[in-house]
Predict the structure.
Amino acid sequence: MKKTNNATSEFLSQLPKNIFSGFVVSLIALPLGLGLALASEAPPISGVIASVVGGIIVSIFGGSKVTITGPGNGLVVVLLGAITTLANGDLYQGYIFTLAAIICSGALMIIIGQLRLGILSDFFPSSAIQGMLAAIGISIFAKQFHVMLANTSIKGDTISLLTDIPHSISLLFKPEYSAIAIAALVGVLSLLIMFFYGKIRNKYFQLVPAPMWIVLIAVGLSYYYEFFSSAPYPIDDSLLVQIPNDVFSNFPTPDFSLILDFKFIGVVIAITLISSIESLLSIKAVDKLDPLKRRSNINKDLTALGIASIVSGFIGGLNVVTVIARSSVNVNNGGTNRSSNFFHSVFLILFVVLFQDQLKRIPLTALAAILVYTGYKLAAPRNLKIVAKIGKEQLIIFFATIIATITTNLITGILIGILTTIIIHFILNKSVLFFIRNLFKPNVLMFKEGFNDTYFVSVKSFSSFLNYSRLKRKLDTIPENQDTIIDFSLCDFVDYTVQESLLGYQETFKRKGGSFEITGLDIHGTSSEHPLAIRSLIPFSKKIKIGAKSNLTKRQKDLQNIANDFSWQYAPKKGHDVSGLHDFVFFKTKKINYLNNSIYDSKSIFRISDTEFSEGEFIARTLVRTTIMTIKLKTEVPKFTLDKEGLLEFIYKFSGFKDILISGHPDFSKRFFLLGEKPKKIKLFFTDELVLFLESNPYYHIECNGNSLLVMRKERLASIKEIKALLDYGTRLEKVITSIQYDELLLKSPKIKS
Amino acid sequence: MNELPNHKFNTILIGVAFSPNLKNNIFEAMRMVDFFDSKMIIVHVGEKTNEKEDNIKKLISGFSDDDEKVNVIWKQGDPVTVIIETARENNADLIMLGAIPREDFLKFYIGSIARKITRNAHCSVLLLIKPSEDLRPCNHIVVNGLKDEKTRQTILDSFEVAQNLGAQKLTIVEEISRQEVKVIVEDDQSLLKDTLIKEQLAQKEDLRVQHILSDVPEDLKTGILIKTQSIFGKRGYSIGHYAKVVAADLLIMNAPKRTTFLDRIFLHDLEHILSELPTDVLIMR
């Protein structure tokens, strides 16, 4: 009981903040709702209905915390297509059919949510999704630009709309069109407000969001003409928002008569696809903003969105999705739980009821300006630059998707995007069989390492959007406050989609106090110099040199930073000079292929590097990669091997060596295997100080070949965290050993003078 | 019930073809014979010629003069049936088979003949990923700890194998599949539940394995570092992946229950391992 009381009081204390942020969000949601509906050729109020229904239902049934729901940008294109074509141009009939499609898609969303298929959204390649969103942006932009310039009658496909833009502009300068020039001016001004809002740093000005400023100014203008100016309001009624007087009593009835029609089913699928993708992308993005770092339940959210879409569809609203822009406004204004979404709906209802008359004064051109800006944002040329940096192949995928989406439709567009990605992966790997053979094999292994509770995830064969869900399922089960290492040493090919998503995990783990490190990517070739470029063990035709400075993985950059912190050097390139290592017993029977990612101090006393070795020459055993530290000693000390597991006993067994017991330290002797050729000297060397150091610190495998030490821990690459620990341990160990006056000790005990 | 304390491989059978691999295969087999102090049967499916006979004699001469120990059998027919039948007739307890490296020489696949033998043999089967002339030390053995009636015997036997091969470390792997956890992680609550259940399952599995371990005679355990490890992944497949990750030298698995045609389409347990050998694999029967 106490717990619920706490929760209630917490909820109440948070309430004012959430009411406020709900209010701010509603200021944006109102103009956007009207605009998005208009852009879809649906009655303007339908967008507001979607916001209201979405806010209320999803805040009750949803699984995310700070998201805002309502009509979405991405849907505009699908809905517009549906409304204009389902009834062959009869807009109202098309709208009624579309409502039925929205309801069906809501049902589909519920099924997706209930079957917990939210993970399906991970089957889409990143660049294809970005291409699709850009295409949607271009479509919105192309159409709304004309509306913004008060040319509402224009029709045609995206490309002809784009090429017609100069024509629409020139129309404004013809005297016979002067009547609409004012409306167009309002539109252009609104667009300028949208673009420069962020640049104006005035806290009072920033109190009201940009879209609301536009509405306020437009409505203010109409009042100016009504009360102060003798001239009539220069914007024609046909260019103003139409809102029925009986919004909440006269709902349109959805028409299900097309339910078995091929075109109708296509619309349902498109709506479901786009709204799921848009929602899931938004939820993922908003989770990264959540100040309380909670994890959203996407399946529950999808179910709630489905219910909301059904309800919204029945009362004439558009379908409901999770929207990123409004959600981030919510977080920025202090929204902490779902109640802000609820209050945003409440305020919307209040607006519509109280300001019905004022809403009717908003010019369409102003709303279109908001959408032009939205479209521009979606298609942002900046995205293009980002994609281009990752690799030329991503650019191909991106453009293939954009062109396909614009010239055909969304579903074909995304399918072509996926196909292009697959073909590019085939070409890059010069093999089709490789993918086919490994596609259905479970390629992810996860286990918790016994000694330090680190989660270790190993990925095999290839990791791309095709099989990413398997990896994701595993990663999702790791608490984010834990240490995790994900290793790609056994993986031949890792694509951009996976790497981008892993970057997201990295951020989340960091936020929640854990660590998430990627190893084994350093040895892969890349297709560009971007850190997230596709990585493959199969060389690319135009190979970019591995270890080129600008092409470092995250782990390599972190290593570089460590080196900088200690003013050490960092050498990422593979070195084949491994002569020094063969003196160590550990490497005696092993063939060392190379050393890379070395960090070392200026005097070359300490050196930490990754190494790859196999068991002996000519034996094609699994290659092992591990991180080792070598320390050069100032004085000569006896050779020894210290190990906890006694693995190396094997090599000594033949030589007849036995575990050396250090007198006075039974615990030490019990815990460690100490081996070496000269037990007496070793016993002398292991002073109390050294034993105490070894006992009180975490365990490492330590070997001494007389003048240098080899310190290592596991037969795998170490994470950055582990490297830092190793570095700390090594430097302290060196201090302890230097402080041992071994020569003097040797002189004092003449018995073992050799 | 095969509760004999000494399961030991008394008769080792190797099927040979006159390929470039012949020498390596025979050397591997001879070493095994040496380790287990057993008899050896070499089966060649095909015509017996003087040249072939000399060839084999030459290879085994360096190893043993004792004619009783090595028996070369020449037979015609379908390789699979011949080898399985010969193994049965001669009471062999281990069949050794070499894998063929595929184009990329770090991956090993096993041919269809070897697969059929593995599935249908009455005795244990050892699959070698790359038979070699020289001795490779066998340091680390990974054994499955599946919840299966055969697991107990497999673990007991693997200690004997470990002793004979001079292994240093033996890891018993318990695989926990997603189906067992029964929780789909969707949010913080289900994650907590999932973590808890996995912890409990891991403990339970560990207890089961520890129980088996307590039955292993002490003298078989000496000198071997014993570890248990729970892994999360697809049953039968992940253990191979694990063996590869830890660079194990030998993977010991239970023999599968009777496999049907369907198992080859919907790969599971052993079939996963056969489709891509992670390391040398010993299938215990």
Observations:
- Chain A is about 55% helix and 10% strand.
- Chain A touches chain B through 46 residues (CB under 8 Å).
